[in-house]
């Protein structure tokens, strides 16, 4: 069921549809987007860096030597900031071929192409039994039918992607590991928290940021850890 507490979902629909058109309309050579003081190139049909991931990127903790998996990497920004944070190994996955091209380009642009591996994968499918200290995810926020791969960066048909993420994420998280997860006030926050708790994770809000003064588009970062058994 789609989250309805945020005001103006019709406005959000129009805004998201316009963004999808913009993602498709850039030239084949790509478009440079500035994000948190750094530049990233996005090729057509790639989700652009935006406020949605900033609470996560500005608040997540990467310990020196951590292995990191970024699920739904888009242009690769979260994975690249994990590299800057001191990770020893970063793997970035996405189902969108355009995102793979963008993320690989940006890894090289920032000098992390030896440290960061980019793989085409539907969530964890290409990872076999690999495990990581940190898993990050900026998945589509809304339970809404997505007609193409670009729409899938914002909308999750029948909430299948988010549901599958929590069904499988525990297999790929090392003991004592943590998940950093992005969501929004116009997304399915209650459903995400329920899925995480059902999978055995505690959920804590780390940070938030708004893309507009009225806070109609407010974004959150959650940290999730395996819940401690009751004594």
From TrEMBL:
UniProt keyword terms in alphabetical order: Methyltransferase, S-adenosyl-L-methionine, Transferase
Superkingdom to which the source organism belongs: Bacteria
Protein name (Swiss-Prot/TrEMBL): Release factor glutamine methyltransferase
One Pfam family cited in the UniProt record for this chain: MTS
The keyword S-adenosyl-L-methionine is annotated on this UniProt entry: yes
Gene3D superfamilies associated with the record: Vaccinia Virus protein VP39
PANTHER family documented for this protein: RIBOSOMAL RNA SMALL SUBUNIT METHYLTRANSFERASE C (PTHR47816)
Entry's Gene Ontology molecular function annotations: S-adenosylmethionine-dependent methyltransferase activity
One Gene Ontology biological process: methylation
Domain Methyltransferase small: 53-187
Transmembrane spans: none
InterPro entries: RsmC/RlmG, SAM-dependent_MTases_sf, Small_mtfrase_dom
